[in-house]
Amino acid sequence: MSWLLHLYETYESNLGRVGVIEKKKYSEQEYTLLPISHTTQTAHIEVLVTEEGEFHFATVVVEKSDASTLIPCTEDSASRAGSKVAPYPLHDKLSYVAGDYTAYGGEAKKEDPFVAYIQQLGEWASSPYADPKVQSIYTYLRKGCLIQDLVKWHILAVDGNGKLIGKWDKKYANLYSEKPAIFSVVAGEQESAFVRFTVHSPKKQLAKVWKDQAMYDSFIRYYNDRLGDERLCYVTGSKLPATSKHANKIRNAADKAKLISANDTSGFTYRGRFNESAEVASISYDVSQKAHNALKWLIQRQGKIIDQRVFLVWTNNAQEIPAPEEDTLSVLRRRPIVQQRKSVTSDILASELAKALDGYKNELASNSSDVNLLILDSATTGRMAVLYYRHMEQQQYFDKLLKWHSTCAWLHRYRKDEEGDSVAFYGAPATKDIAYAAYGPRANDKVVKGLMERILPCIVDGRAIPSDVVNSAFRRASNPVSMEKWEWEKTLSITCALINKKEEYPLALDKEQDDRSYLFGRLLAVADVLERRALGSDETRSSNAIRYMNSFAQHPERTWKTIQASLQPYQARLGSKGYYLSGLIDDIATRFKFDDFNNKPLTGKYLLGFYSQRHDLFQKKEKQEQVEDALE
């Protein structure tokens, strides 16, 4: 229940944002922290009525960004499914809100949806909490002429017999010069169109009903008087009106999965232990509404969804906070005062990260604003589960991030800036990039979300990175001929970061290191650089060292003989310019212990040696070129 309590506290901490329409950073999509007793629906038709309760205007809601509508709801309507008649209190489908639905060919049902709808709306409109807008809409709808007016305004389409057309067919082209707009927004037949209402006044500017705070408060006060018996709330410990019907639409408007449900009265959900579901756990209506609405808001605002799996990190005051799945560059980019240096070490990186994370901590409202991490997913369309949840103090969370980014670190060059130029950064890769390094760029979302779930405990709980992930990345990094150069370079640096999480080697070349795998990696790097310099910048084919890399990792002694033999013509071509590299090969070879120069497969350390040696040679060449340019 702790995750429910912290979501409830988040809602209480952000009451000032309830009902306030916000937009996502990089899109026009709107979202809001829902008031209790409210949900969202996608509207297809908008109807305006006058304050006197007369039809004024109607239009088809074509823009998707404008279709999402905040509507009041009851416990029954929020969880209705199939043929169950449970009307929403105000806005609803055509079959509910139109009194002349059956007159225009709608199917007559044993329980008339319109009768249930208009009776419920009338009770709200006649209550002491009713807003004048509700009364205006009720006055119009009880006349039962909605479809008639929508047909007159060419919103709905009828056939030659004056009945509603089901799905659009070319045979109706003789009745209409073009396809009516309603068929472009509804997925099924016209009767499934969702209608929203608002009120027009020629004297003053009125807020849209679904954006009016007074309307929200009107229904909340009205509905609170109609709630059920009080029970002990297992979340807050208080006695409050309870509910057994909890919210859906958690990830999006079409999401039917629920986190809390107990409607299986004949199976083995709780039979044999309890007589009824309320004995398992009782949650108050207020807590359920606020916690679920806070969760929806947080997911829309800052959640990451991959193949319907939700990854969410938040604080109660909803301040911006770095997510564990981000790479180091993303964390540092948000703090413009922090800049990565060209020369980096683990100590420098830890210092830079500490400055960045201190900036986040200073922005948090109070030290009591703890950090929550949550992973959600559903195996079926109706049930959702909490796969992972952690609640920790902010200092502990930032310490975990600092350790991850400064230990699972290597030099990466695959990121781009806003202009599309490559950006080098030293630090930890993003978990999504780890998935692509381990399983290839064509790894589907199910693979990616599974790996992200497995890596998260490594970041937050300090667990070791799963060996199968490291081994898979190692095998791909050792097979450069199977991928393009840019992809291999990205895979190589990410693999080095994963291996280095355990080995804790520096990026700078360790010339005193005598580990056989590290030394073999150094040999391979020198051979690659030597051949590349002999070929020149115009030649783009892979060197022999790169082509034999996979075989080299499995049989280093035997493969090195082949590589060294292939180097002789390139050493001859370089002449005196190749003396340094040839001498470096000899120097590295002398560091081997006699028994270590064998065909035993190499460990991941050889990639660290390869990368560090190559990086060291590239830096030396850059310095030499800078000196030559200065002399000229």
Describe this structure in words.
- The chain is of the alpha+beta class.
- Helix content is 43%, strand content 13%.
- It is built from 23 helices and 17 strands.
- The chain has helices spanning 2-13, 64-67, 75-78, 94-97, 113-125, 132-141, 146-152, 182-185, 213-224, 285-302, 328-333, 346-363, 394-407, 431-439, 445-460, 467-477, 485-503, 516-535, 544-547, 549-554, 556-574, 579-590, 605-631; strands at 22-23, 30-31, 38-42, 45-50, 55-60, 68-72, 92-93, 194-200, 230-232, 239-243, 283-284, 304-306, 309-315, 371-377, 385-392, 410-416, 422-427.
- A four-stranded mixed sheet has the order 5-4-8-7. It has a four-stranded antiparallel sheet with strand order 12-13-14-15, sandwiched between helices. A three-stranded antiparallel sheet has the order 9-10-11.
- Strand 14 and strand 15 form a beta hairpin.
- The radius of gyration is 33 Å and the shape is elongated.
- It starts with a helix and ends with a helix.
